[in-house]
Every structure is written in structure tokens, then in C-alpha cells.
Design a protein that fits this description.
Extracellular solute-binding protein; transport; about 15% strand; about 450 residues; disordered N terminus; Bact_solute-bd_prot1; three-stranded antiparallel sheet; TAT_signal; 16 strands; single chain; alpha+beta; five-stranded mixed sheet
Length: about 450
């Protein structure tokens, strides 16, 4: 698979890439409230099973996965024609919703963008009600705005600790002894002593992905940079603790500073200098598709906890399906997404072995807990992970992710402040406390207060 898909997966599984959501909120036409218009924004399940729907996805691997499931859907709903269109959603969706012209019935959308589009989307509370108790809390939370649920949850992206098992075994490092982040620091020190010149822990150099990873760490502690009402809550003991950990890695020379899967990063992974990678499950794409010298050497385990007995995973990125109000057949599009996510035939076709991923879609797990049953794997041994049963590791980690909050529309804009300030800390120019104070003031003044 082409290298650009690596970059695409990192960005699509993460927060919004452009400031589209804030622009939409600022520039969109006035929408009458439900009370003013007399119309309900609650989508109802259709009483028909025939018609035609248009659904938008981005081109690439997931487009091909969903394309392959249409035949399974039509086996259940033979009279619903699915027009599956590859679209640059970031470039096209905003203007389409504003103008109301040629609006699709369903759209694959980053979780981080849902909160910025809710005026244009159906509230799915009613149709999701039969499934809500079995959806991962974090995924339901990120799609809930003002009491309404605006996305059909797709993937759950638990954070995992990926590690080079071959290199660590040669150095005498016992991964099973790593239970906390303090243990990880000690394991990195021990590895560096055994392999002089190594820098064992990944330190993300991209401001955007570094901020996303920061949110993964915060998710473990049950927090995020904004609360459920969109209020900033960055300057806290939890974030200070996370930044202090990252700054310790920097100060002690225990980290490889590189941007996710750029040539430098890949080289340091393949030469055994970088052996610990705390990241979302979608890092599994690297040993499967990119690493050459160490493919087969890598394994995954749960993230360390911040405190003994604490959560061993946090969410890092994710996407859902949304249904625009102006879509002509959004109710039929609901049947399509209901099949993909909640029908065994659908989710088995999405995550199980197929033409695109012969061993299964092992870069995420379903957010619907009956589909993410550790005892009923949709994929199992991954050759590039030495045959490891990644399904069991990921589903156990996913079950530990605390609940979340909707991603605020200003999240991407915050990268200019928080994301960049974290990088300045890793340059040695700021302390963790200075990052939190400075970024909080800048985000509050330049983003939150200007909404």
C-alpha cells in the first residue's frame, strides 16, 4: 500500500485537519431552531426499504473496505441502491452543507469535526437508542452535543504500547514488568545502558500529532483539553504530569524526536534505536506495511498506567458517520450504517479478513461492544506482529478507556498554541508549567472567547 496512506491514516483517524468547523459556525446561514421551525431534528427509522442513497467517504483503504461491504448490505436490502463516492470531505463538505445543493445522505467524518456541524445534521438519539448501552462510552460521548447524538460511532482507537520484542529481549528488558510510566522510564534507561546511543521512546515532532497524542495520555486520566461544555481545562495537575513525563524523556535523552513514520522515524525504528512507541492501535500499520528490517519483531501491549491500577489505555483519534438533514434519503442511509456497525454480517465484513486487509482491519476495533468481544475475534494473528493476537490486546485495552467529551470546534486552532508550545518544550525552551500557562491564555483569548 502506498506510503501516502500512512500519512492519511494518521490524519483521518485524528482531529480535524483544517479550521473548517470554526469557519462553518462563523459563516453558515442562520438556521431556525427546532422550536422556531416546528420541525424535529430527530431522525426516525424509515418505514420503507427501497430507494437510492449517496454516501461520501475519502479515497483510500477504508473506502475500499466499505465498498466491499455494499454487496453484503444489498443481500439484506436488495432494493436500496448505494452510490458510494470518494470525496475530499475536508474541502467539499462545508460548502455543500451551507448551500444545501447536492447534499449526500451520509458522510464519513472525523469525530473532532462532528461538534462543528451539528446545525446541519440529524440527531440520531432515537435510532441509536437500541444500541446505545452497548456502544463504547467514549465514542458515544464524543458524538453527543447539547443532549443530541450526531454521529453513528465507527472505530475505537485505543492507545497501546508498541515495542520491539526482539531488541528488548536481547537487552534483557522484561516488558511485562512495565505497569506504569515510571516503569517505562526505567525500562528505557536500562535499554539505553545495554544499547549505548539508543533513544528508546518515541517523542512526536509534529505539533498536530503531538497534541493528539497528548489527548491520548489525558484520556487515560479521564480528562481532555475541554470539558463537555467546551470550556478550556488545560492548566491542570493531570496535564502537568503528562508534560513532565515527556520533558523527563527529553532531559534524560531517552527519546527519539521524529514525526510519525517519516523517513527518520522509520530508520530509527528499523535500526533498533527506538523500541517503545506509545500510540493508537493504527501504528500496527507500520510493521504491516512500512518497516522492513524489523517487521515481525514488533508487538503490542497495554499502555502503562499513570498510577498502579489505573486505566491502561486512552482514546487517540476516531471517526463516525453523520447524516445531513438536507440529504434526500438520510433515513435509508441510516439503514446502511446500522448494517455496517450493528449487524454481525456487516461488522464482520468490515473488520474481518478481506481483499484490502487479508488478515483483517487490524488498525482499529469496533466501537460496538458486542462486535468487540475478546472471545469472538474478527481478526487474530497478525504476521507482522510475530503472529500476535492483536484483537485480544486491543479489545481489553479498549474496554479500559474512560468516557470522553465532544471535541471543541477550536481544537485544530489550538495546535498553533498548545501543539507548538509542546514542541518548544521538547526543544528545551519552555517548562511544562510555562506551556500550560501560555497555551491556556492564548487558546482562551484567541479561540474560545472569539466563538
Amino acid at each position: 500500500m502506498q506510503r501516502h496512506l500512512l500519512r492519511r491514516r494518521a490524519l483521518l483517524a485524528s482531529a480535524a485537519l483544517a479550521a473548517g468547523a470554526p469557519a462553518l459556525a462563523a459563516c453558515g446561514p442562520d438556521i431556525a431552531s427546532d422550536e422556531e421551525s416546528g420541525a424535529s431534528s430527530l431522525l426516525k427509522a424509515p418505514d420503507r426499504t427501497e430507494g437510492e442513497i449517496t454516501v461520501w467517504d475519502r479515497s483510500g483503504d477504508l473506502f475500499e473496505v466499505f465498498e466491499g461491504v455494499i454487496a453484503d448490505f444489498n443481500a439484506k436490502y436488495p432494493d436500496i441502491k448505494v452510490n458510494h463516492v470518494a470525496v475530499d470531505i475536508d474541502a467539499k463538505l462545508q460548502n455543500t452543507l451551507i448551500t444545501g445543493a447536492d447534499v449526500p445522505d451520509g458522510v464519513f467524518l472525523d469525530d473532532a469535526k462532528v461538534g462543528g456541524f451539528t446545525d446541519y445534521l440529524w440527531d440520531l438519539s432515537d435510532v441509536l437508542a437500541p444500541y446505545a448501552a452497548d456502544i463504547a462510552p467514549q465514542k458515544l460521548d464524543v458524538n453527543t452535543v447539547g443532549g443530541g447524538v450526531y454521529g453513528v460511532p465507527f472505530d475505537l482507537d485505543p492507545g497501546l504500547l508498541f515495542y520491539n520484542a526482539t531488541a528488548l529481549e536481547a537487552a534483557g528488558i522484561d516488558v511485562e514488568a512495565i505497569e506504569t510510566y515510571d516503569d517505562l522510564l526505567q525500562a528505557a534507561r536500562d535499554y539505553q545502558a545495554a544499547v549505548p546511543g539508543s533513544a528508546p521512546i518515541h517523542l512526536e515532532q509534529s505539533a498536530f500529532l503531538g497534541q493528539l497524542q497528548l489527548e491520548m495520555y489525558a484520556s487515560q486520566l479521564g480528562t481532555s483539553i475541554a470539558d463537555a461544555d467546551g470550556n478550556l481545562r488545560l492548566d491542570t495537575p493531570e496535564f502537568e504530569r503528562i508534560l513532565t513525563f515527556l520533558d523527563t524523556v527529553r532531559q534524560e535523552g531517552l527519546g527519539t524526536r521524529a514525526e510519525y513514520l517519516t523517513p527518520t522515524d522509520i530508520a530509527e525504528l528499523d535500526n533498533g534505536n527506538q523500541v517503545f512507541y506509545p500510540w493508537a492501535i493504527w501504528f500496527s500499520f507500520a510493521p504491516q506495511q512500512v518497516l522492513t528490517e524489523t517487521a515481525g519483531d514488533w508487538r503490542a501491549t497495554q499502555l502503562p498506567a499513570w498510577d498502579a491500577g489505573g486505566a491502561r489505555s486512552g482514546a487517540m483519534g476516531g471517526s463516525s458517520f453523520v447524516l445531513p438533514k438536507d440529504g434526500k434519503n438520510a433515513d435509508l442511509a441510516w439503514l446502511f450504517y446500522e448494517f455496517l456497525m450493528f449487524d454481525e454480517a456487516g461488522y464482520a465484513a468490515v473488520w474481518g479478513p478481506g481483499d484490502v486487509y487479508p488478515e483483517g482491519l487490524a488498525t482499529s476495533i469496533p466501537s460496538y461492544t458486542p462486535a468487540a468481544d475478546p472471545a469472538k475475534p474478527l481478526y487474530s494473528g497478525i504476521t507482522a506482529l510475530g503472529g500476535q493476537d492483536l484483537w485480544t490486546v486491543a479489545t481489553e485495552a479498549g474496554a479500559q478507556i474512560p468516557g470522553g467529551t465532544p471535541t471543541p470546534a477550536w481544537w485544530t486552532g489550538a495546535v498553533d498554541y498548545l501543539g507548538n508550545d509542546v514542541q518548544r518544550m521538547l526543544d528545551g525552551d519552555l517548562t511544562p508549567q510555562e506551556v500550560l500557562a501560555q497555551a491556556s491564555e492564548d487558546i482562551q483569548t484567541n479561540l474560545v472567547d472569539r466563538q
